[in-house]
Amino acid sequence: MELRVLRYFLAVAREGSITGAARQLHVTQPTLSRQIQELEDELGQTLLIRSNHNAIPTPEGMLLRKRAEEIMELVGKVESEFSSMGEVVAGDVYIGGGETEAMKLIAGIIRELREEFPEVRYHLYSGNAEDVTERLDQGRLDFGILIQPVDLAKYNYVGLPARDVWGVIMRRDSPLAEKTAVTRGDLLNLPLICSRQVLRQISGVNEYLEWFGEDFGKLNIVGTYNLIYNAALMVNEGIGYAVTLDKLVNVTGSGDLCFRPLKPKLESGLNIVWKKYQVFSSAAELFLERVREKFAGSGGG
């Protein structure tokens, strides 16, 4: 299986037609059709449902598209690492993380390094812990910023000197908004929108589930989210109350939403993690060195 043919297949899958993909790739339509047919023969699967004007991926084609995108992303990463080798520190650093104000700490390191090493580029990927660790395991990210609770057994990590506070995003016209903090009892009969990450059973301590204790099974969870922006839109429409971290949604001014912390207080720590035995590019090694200088005293593994 050649990388060139995978690029051809991705172009067809993205364009939705062989004609459009051939135009974009600057190859003839018969050539492209023949390459896709040879790929199907090689894999022993039908990858596209063809019609006069469209070419729609089959379930097998959707799987190949996902894998091909992962492969091409890794190829680009390898090419970047080798092209940046030399006396001048250059190249790319790939960082993933959830939504958290603690990203300001990472942004501060990037700003300092950019002043000293302007040839280094930084690529950020937003996602929950499942998204980030999948990309870490595949080698598509160098580092991940993970919000607890999360299983760190497979990773080396440095703790960040920050803790995120949990609370509830709600409409300002909700009776609960009159309170300064929200208790377990307040939440029992409310429609809740919760983070999928914290609802997952993991090895180790899950402070979120422990905070609810025996009442967790009584909660009325009407929806889940991985990133808070869309969940906040659901709150604004009156669908429910989002249990989330502070400072991720703008609740200042005269907007419709407000935030109330949980009582007793519930906080989550954060770690920057990377795969054990990871071989880094010079740019990523430089970033890790600065992270350790800044945060080594905050704990790690």
List the helices and strands and how they pair.
Layout: H1 3-15, H2 18-25, H3 29-43, E1 48-50, E2 55-57, H4 59-83, E3 91-97, H5 103-116, E4 120-126, H6 129-137, E5 143-147, E6 155-171, H7 184-187, E7 191-195, H8 196-199, H9 207-212, E8 220-225, H10 228-236, E9 241-245, E10 257-261, E11 267-275, H11 282-295
Parallel strand pairs: 3-4, 3-5, 7-8, 7-9
Antiparallel strand pairs: 1-2, 5-11, 6-9, 6-10, 6-11
Helix pairs in contact: 1-2, 1-4
Task: Walk me through the structure.
- This protein is an alpha/beta fold.
- Helices cover 40% and strands 24% of the residues.
- The chain contains 11 helices and 11 strands.
- It has helices at 3-15, 18-25, 29-43, 59-83, 103-116, 129-137, 184-187, 196-199, 207-212, 228-236, 282-295; strands at 48-50, 55-57, 91-97, 120-126, 143-147, 155-171, 191-195, 220-225, 241-245, 257-261, 267-275.
- The strands form 2 sheets. Strands 3, 4, 5, 6, 7, 8, 9, 10 and 11 form a 9-stranded mixed sheet that branches. A two-stranded antiparallel sheet has the order 1-2.
- Helix 1 crosses helix 2 (18-25) and helix 1 packs across helix 4.
- The longest helix has 25 residues, at 59-83.
- The radius of gyration is 23 Å and the shape is globular.
- The model has no long low-confidence stretch (mean pLDDT 87).
